[in-house]
Amino acid sequence: AHQAALAARSKDNLRSPICCILGHVDTGKTKLLDKIRQTNVQEGEAGGITQQIGATYFPGEAIKQKTAVVNPDGKFEIKVPGLLIIDTPGHESFSNLRSRGSSLCNIAILVVDIMHGLEPQTLESMKLLRDRKTPFIVALNKIDRLYGWKKVDNNGFQESLALQSRGVQNEFKNRLEQTKLAFSEQGFNAEVFYENKSMARYVSLVPTSAHTGEGIPDMLKLILQLTQERMVGSLMYLSEVQATVLEVKAIEGFGMTIDVILSNGILREGDRIVVCGVEGAITTNIRALLTPAVMKELRVKSQYVHNKEVKAAMGVKISAPGLEGAIAGSRLLVVGPDDDEEDLEEEVEADLNKLFSRVSTSGRGVSVQASTLGSLEALLDFLKDCKIPVANVGIGPVFKRDVMQCGTMLEKSPDYAVMLCFDVKVDKEAQAYAEENNIKIFTADIIYHLFDSFTKHMEEQLEKKKEESKLLAVFPCVLNTVAVFNKTNPIVVGVDVVDGNLRVGTPIAAVRQSATGGKEVVSLGRVSSIERDHKQIPICKKGQPSVAVKIEMGGHQPTYGRQLEESDTLYSLISRASIDCLKEFYRKEVTNDEWALIIKLKSLFDIN
Ligand code: GDP
């Protein structure tokens, strides 16, 4: 076993790490990828870069050539066989490269536009990377846009920087400092790569330009350095198959196919495989293992090459019967000779069921719908952090039945009659049904935007309820009457506010001794105006000069000299309902003194 362990640790047994590119839209992710794919003209063709399905493979030799400018003495040794970079940048791919809660993406490049700093999707990506504990470096892209930048194509960054004017160097320094600060605000220590002493503690920032190619050699070298330093253990080649479905696509001549990233093990034509589908596990046999044909092979009619077997790490298209309904982000398992097919089916279904079971126990909450397992998981994680409860979970396009399901919330908890849909289409009939029934459907392809829509929706609902409850909310006050100007209909009195604050709209009462010796609450009606020096004011606070208040009542108003005397203290007439209303909608607006007064008034009015 010791021998085997040693052998496994040897270079031959390392597999290629898988790398994802993440970042905000327009930071240059696609352009960077294009630039690294490009062969380096001066150095001659960087051999062996291969286009796979959903990924590009860079063999060690190609990376060696591409990093030569920043590794002149060849001291930096490449120990991994190569690097597999996922072709579709963005967190969609990243979150679908998942297996049992961990990521199959070994390493990531987070692209930040040096002119823009951290943007919403940057933060979203950072959260994903943190949650999945994926090591990453940051490409501070578009350095060629620093004013006055003089380029040297495909140069190492430090050398290029040294050639710049003072002004450019200063602007770079400023932007670098700003970026470091922004990262630290997000809880990451970041340092420009050539000053980073510990890749375990600091995220490396590598300035790049996808246009001039500057800094890209540094970026590639760093990616390998980080992999080799931090994760050789997890890059040991395993015989067990580890694979996930990145995309599900219909292809002419092949029917429904799945694009799979094989991160460990070997897949063979004819293998019996299990993946998760919307209606449960799909078990089928691999009919064809396809990779793209390179130029020379285009004489063969298909754009694909058939492979007898493929070895990790590898992106491959699988054609097999019965793949309709397969879900992106699902694991792919191979049924071995000793495996029980049903066990494996349960295992892949568990990935979906686990997400479906993450609904609030109260049965109250929003409905969420996402396109893939990965994005659904990311969305649920996000909503959990935001403390937004979820009652229903779905995968794929939104149909009427999903909206109807969501509609059950209209009775239970109308605020939650909301669908948060991530990267999915909404069926026309479903949309119409939602509009008719006042069910909100929010769609977005950025998770943050769903949160913003939902927050706005909740604020609107709260505002609406607050408006509706305005008459119910009663702020506490105690008034001494100093003059009676009009005895009734309406009552107009001069008062001093001796406690609390008097507001327009407040219901007023006196508490008198009844004939039988008990308490009698005499309701005077609501304050319809407050005046001082013939000017209307909305509020009179404790201790402020006397005001004249008009109190009106719909029904038969009591009269001074009969049911009331000038010497009666007046109070705002609170109730259980008014207290609850303050607690629900006005908590922030009620001061501690006011709560104390409410407690006094509670006992005065015998409220429990
Ligand atoms: P993505 O949305 O992150 O994939 O961004 P793209 O790669 O599509 O780039 C967005 C825009 O930024 C395009 O117009 C690119 O030409 C431009 N761009 C990308 N990288 C750079 C760069 O390094 N320098 C400059 N000046 N422009 C860039």
From TrEMBL:
Homology family: Belongs to the TRAFAC class translation factor GTPase superfamily. Classic translation factor GTPase family. IF-2 subfamily.
A Gene Ontology molecular function term for this protein is: GTPase activity
Instruction: Indicate where this protein resides in the cell.
Output: Cytoplasm
Assigned keywords, A-Z: Cytoplasm, GTP-binding, Hydrolase, Initiation factor, Metal-binding, Nucleotide-binding, Protein biosynthesis
Reading the lineage from the top rank, the first entry is Eukaryota
Under Enzyme Commission nomenclature, its number is 3.6.5.3
Ranges of residues in domain Tr-type G = 14-232
Q: Which reaction does it catalyse?
A: GTP + H2O = GDP + phosphate + H(+)
**Protein name stated in the entry:** Eukaryotic translation initiation factor 5B
Tell me what organism the protein belongs to: Xylaria multiplex
